[in-house]
Amino acid sequence: MSFHNVTVRVLFSEHLVLGLLLLGGYVKPDLQNSFLLMFMRMLVVVPLMASVAFKLYPSAPKEFLSLFRRDRLDVMLQAFGCGVLMFVYITSLYMAIGLIPTGIALTLFFTYPVFTALLSWRFFGECPTPFSWLVMGIILAGGVLTIPQSSVTHSSHTIAIGISASVIAGIFNACYNVLAQKCLQKLHPVPFTWVSFATTLLLSGVSLLFWPPSSTQLDWTPMWIGSIFSGVVSFMGHTFNNLGIRMIGATTASIIGASSPAMTALVAWATISETLNVIQCVGIGIVTLGIALLSRENLIRKCSTS
Fold it and tell me: Of the four, 75, 122, 202, 278, which is 20 to 30 A from 196 by CA?
């Protein structure tokens, strides 16, 4: 997933990749182009997911068709709603990655466990412990430390939009997680994931009809190469994550997944020489540690109640 994020960054802005090739900057980081890149990516991911769904879960087609029954309409609406939320948070995250450094955008996005915990408290009655409140405060403080200063390459206006987009993406991702938790009680993860991604593909395609990209002279060849690559690696990321959840459990997998902001910053540094200052690196470390502690706290609470 870190390679996917860096690929999106390159598509939006020009970088010297691996110190060898000057690539990128094929589209501007705006709303219309976020729809376009998402649509191109989903054209790769959705068929790939459909091709492996039969192997991962042979009953997937039957369960998917059952969603059209009247008694399963609520489950269909929940799965579709998750797709809508996914569409919004991916769009926002794409804009953020295009406007501010990749590692910072992902770090601010990964403050979403704080919003997830608050929403779970509101809708499921899962009241955070004093330790959880402390950790959530640590995560938000770490996120604040990563906020970049205005410079020649990044104006204060651009930074403000990028930060807002990252936080909005995190909030909608938290909403997605809460709704998914409810939907997955009645629907297997394989058809659920496919419905969510298919909905995102549909919505991004419809959005392009109403808000087409402003530029008519797009460099389609590198855009398709980048989109296919990002689609394949993101598909691999989701597949490996699901396998990890199956083998070691969702909470343990999420603790490991907390390394994503730091890993993205590392990959961005190694591939496109995107650097951060010491304070921003400390902020990423604090957010990573906070997410791991919050996931561990959730694991302990589940073990104590079961």
Answer: 122
- Residue among 217, 250, 107, 262 nearest 170 (CA): 107
Chain segment 80-111, per-residue pLDDT in tens:
998 999 999 999 999 888 888 888 888 888 88
Pull the structure tokens for residue 106: 């992902």
Q: Which of 149, 104, 82 is nearest to 275 (CA)?
A: 104
Q: Where are the beta strands (DSSP E) in the chain?
A: 15-17, 21-23
For residues 208 and 214, what is the distance between their CA atoms, to the nearest angstrom?
11
State phi, psi for 23 to the nearest 5 degrees.
-130, 160
Which residues have CB under 8 Å from 291's CB, separation 6+?
A: 110, 113, 139, 254, 255, 258
Answer for the pair 159, 98: CB distance below 8 angstroms, yes or no: no
Residue 305: CB atoms within 10 A of its CB come to 6
Q: How do residues 166-213 score in pLDDT, each as one tens digit?
A: 999 988 988 888 888 788 788 888 888 888 889 999 999 999 998 888
Cβ of 75: how many Cβ atoms within 10 Å? 22
* Spatial distance between the Cα atoms of 278 and 303, rounded to a whole number of angstroms: 38
Compute, in degrees rounded to 10, the torsion defined by CA atoms 184, 185, 187, 188.
70
DSSP 211: S
Q: Which residues contact 20 (CB under 8 A, 6 or more apart)?
A: none
